[in-house]
Write a structure and sequence with these properties.
globular; 8 helices; 7-stranded mixed beta sheet; alpha+beta; two-stranded antiparallel sheet
């Protein structure tokens, strides 16, 4: 990336220029001009902010490093599964919210852990985070949740595909397996690039930590987590997936007052094939 130290970034001459969600190169911009003409910057992106360029040094933009890994592994989405009954409050509030946010606003959502008892701990103890997985649901937990609620006709499930940009959002953390487990805590739950890469390591010192023949977009351990802080706006939802036409139709009917254009049937996402 070109050195931007000498650029006049006065508000009257340039727009904000940091690739918050993209890593488009500015190589073609003529930085000999001072200030950079606004029209040259606008050719590349209208959504860039000055501070993320880390003016004054040549360290690579960390968002770009994350994006390179995302692109290399062909990660198209993060995953969050939830009972369909929770879609109403998600759409009404305009965001998926952490448990702490929900409790702070006194918003009631169905929590399967209040009804299905597990012998092991399955929830990260910091309520400020939303638990996501990469490219597929945590089928170990998802199958248990579905099995233990199968006789309750009021509970159906949907899978939300989330924009992977939240991988490098400020405050996001990574866990090589279920974040509530002792194994994850022993390794550490942090938000750095190296920890993200560790999710895909050939061998991790945890149960089921050998990668084997797994597609590049899937983490080594099926329970690996991306923990996003506080909330995720509905604009970041790529699709809301249902297992059948019947469940899709029922959800659309129940949520007729909201935009349901992203609601789709995707049976495969409920039990994806991780193997090569």
């Amino acid at each position: 990336m070109e050195n931007l130290k000498t650029v006049d970034i006065s508000i009257n001459n340039v727009i904000d220029i940091s690739p918050l969600y993209s890593c488009k190169s500015l190589e073609a911009i003529d930085i000999s001009a001072n200030p950079i003409p606004k029209n040259q910057i606008e050719k590349f992106s209208k959504k860039i902010l000055v501070h993320a360029f880390n003016l004054g040094n040549q360290e690579p933009n960390i968002n770009c490093e994350f994006q390179k890994e995302i692109n290399k592994r062909r990660i198209n989405y993060l995953i969050h599964f939830t009972p369909t009954i929770n879609l109403y409050s998600i759409l009404e509030q305009g965001k998926i919210m952490s448990r702490a946010k929900l409790e702070g606003l006194d918003i009631e959502q169905f929590d399967v852990l209040d009804y299905a008892q597990f012998t092991d701990t399955v929830r990260y103890d910091d309520k400020n985070y939303i638990n996501l997985s990469i490219s597929s649901p945590n089928t170990f937990l998802f199958s248990k949740f579905r099995e233990r609620t199968k006789n309750d006709i009021t509970i159906n499930w949907c899978v939300l595909k989330i924009d992977p940009k939240h991988i490098y959002e400020k405050g996001t953390k990574f866990s090589v397996t279920n974040a509530a487990s002792n194994a994850a805590k022993a390794i550490g739950i942090t938000g750095d690039l190296e920890k993200f890469k560790m999710l895909f390591a050939d061998r991790i010192n945890i149960p089921h930590g050998v990668r084997g023949r797994i597609k590049s977009e899937f983490p080594t351990n099926i329970q690996a987590e991306v923990l996003v802080k506080n909330n995720i706006p509905v604009d970041s939802i790529i699709e809301v997936c249902f297992e059948s036409q019947e469940s899709l139709a029922a959800a659309k009917a129940a949520l007729y007052e909201f935009d349901t254009s992203k609601f789709v049937v995707d049976k495969e996402i409920f039990s994806p094939n991780r193997s090569l």
